[in-house]
Design a protein that fits this description.
The chain is an alpha/beta fold. The protein contains seven helices and twelve strands. Helices cover about 25% and strands about 15% of the residues. Helix 1 packs across helix 3 and helix 3 runs parallel beside helix 4.
Length: about 290
C-alpha cells in the first residue's frame, strides 16, 4: 500500500471555523443527540447511523456553501454551514489541529492541549499555519474528545448525516512527539461520539491507518489526491467503494476516474474549494 511521509503539497487550504461558534460548542460538549422517545426505561437507543451510498455524485463545498450542481447526491460542508436539503451531508471538522483564528481560545482555555516541543514552543503545521493538538496521553485525548465531540454533536443537531474529522495524519508533522497510535486512539473516541449522535464517520486520508479502520470505527473515507498517489484502489477496497475522492488537478482527476471512477465517487475541485461563481471555481465528476 503506498505511503508518503511528506504531506502532499496540493492538499487544499481548509476553511476557518468561527471562534465564537467553537467556544460555544465546546461548552455544550456534553450534549448528545438521541432520536429515542422518552419512556420509563432509563436507557435510550442510539439513533441509527447511515453510511453514504457508494458512487453517489459528490461535491466538496468546505470553502463555502452554494446550490449543489445538478445530479449531486452527497456533499461535504464546514460545520458552521447548513446542510443541503434532500442530500447526504458530511460535516467537516478540523479535529487534530487548531484553526488559526481559534488559537487564542485554545491558549486561554486549554493551553496544555496544544502540542509543544522541549522548549515550550508550539508545534505547527507550517503549510497551513495551524498548531497541532496534543493527543499524546489518554487524559488529554479525553479532554480533547469533550471539545471536538461537542462540535460533532453540533453537526448532528444541524442535520448532517456524517462527519469527516480532518488532519488524522498530524503525527506526521509532530517532529516525533505524536504517534500513529496516539491519533488512532483519539479517532476512536471521536468515532464513538459520532455514532452515539447518529452520525457516520469518515477516515480522512492517511492510508497508514486503513488497517485499523474497523477498530477505530470508521464507516467510509474521504480521500484527497489518492489519484495523485495511486491510493484510490486501497481506499475503495477497504471501504467497499464507500469513498469520496477529491482531486485538484486535471491529471490526478483523470487518473482517479480511470482507476476507480466506475465504482467510487470522484470529484475535481479547485484547490481553494471556492463557491460556484467565484474566480477559479472548478467542479467535474467522472
Amino acid at each position: 500500500m503506498p505511503q508518503h511521509a511528506v504531506r502532499p503539497l496540493l492538499r487544499r487550504k481548509r476553511t476557518l471555523a468561527a471562534l465564537a461558534g467553537g467556544a460555544a460548542l465546546a461548552t455544550g460538549a456534553g450534549l448528545l443527540l438521541s432520536h429515542a422517545s422518552a419512556t420509563s426505561s432509563p436507557a435510550k437507543a442510539a439513533p441509527k447511523v447511515v453510511p453514504p451510498t457508494a458512487n453517489a455524485a459528490f461535491d466538496y463545498q468546505i470553502g463555502g456553501a452554494y446550490t449543489p450542481p445538478t445530479g449531486v447526491k452527497a456533499l461535504s460542508r464546514d460545520r458552521g454551514a447548513k446542510p443541503a436539503k434532500g442530500l447526504y451531508n458530511v460535516c467537516y471538522v478540523n479535529a487534530f489541529q487548531a484553526q488559526p483564528d481559534a488559537l487564542d481560545w485554545w491558549e486561554k482555555n486549554n493551553p496544555d492541549l496544544l502540542l509543544r516541543d522541549a522548549d515550550g514552543d508550539l508545534v505547527n503545521d507550517e503549510a497551513w499555519g495551524e498548531a497541532l493538538l496534543d493527543t499524546s496521553t489518554a487524559g488529554k485525548r479525553t479532554r480533547l474528545a469533550k471539545i471536538v465531540g461537542g462540535w460533532i454533536s453540533g453537526c448532528a443537531t444541524s442535520g448532517f448525516q456524517a462527519v469527516e474529522p480532518d488532519n488524522l495524519d498530524s503525527y506526521e508533522r509532530s517532529d516525533g512527539l505524536l504517534t500513529r497510535g496516539h491519533n488512532a486512539a483519539f479517532a476512536k473516541l471521536l468515532a464513538d461520539r459520532a455514532h452515539t449522535a447518529g452520525l457516520a464517520i469518515g477516515q480522512k486520508n492517511t492510508t497508514d491507518l486503513l488497517g485499523q479502520r474497523k477498530k477505530i470505527g470508521f464507516d467510509f473515507a474521504v480521500a484527497e489526491e489518492c489519484g495523485r498517489y495511486d491510493e484510490c484502489a486501497d481506499y475503495a477496497s477497504a471501504y467497499g467503494n464507500k469513498v469520496f475522492v477529491v482531486e485538484y488537478t486535471d491529471r490526478d482527476f483523470a487518473k482517479a476516474c480511470s482507476s476507480v471512477g466506475a465504482k467510487v465517487s470522484v470529484v475535481r475541485r479547485d484547490l481553494d474549494v471556492v463557491p460556484a461563481g467565484r474566480p477559479g471555481y472548478a467542479f467535474r465528476t467522472c
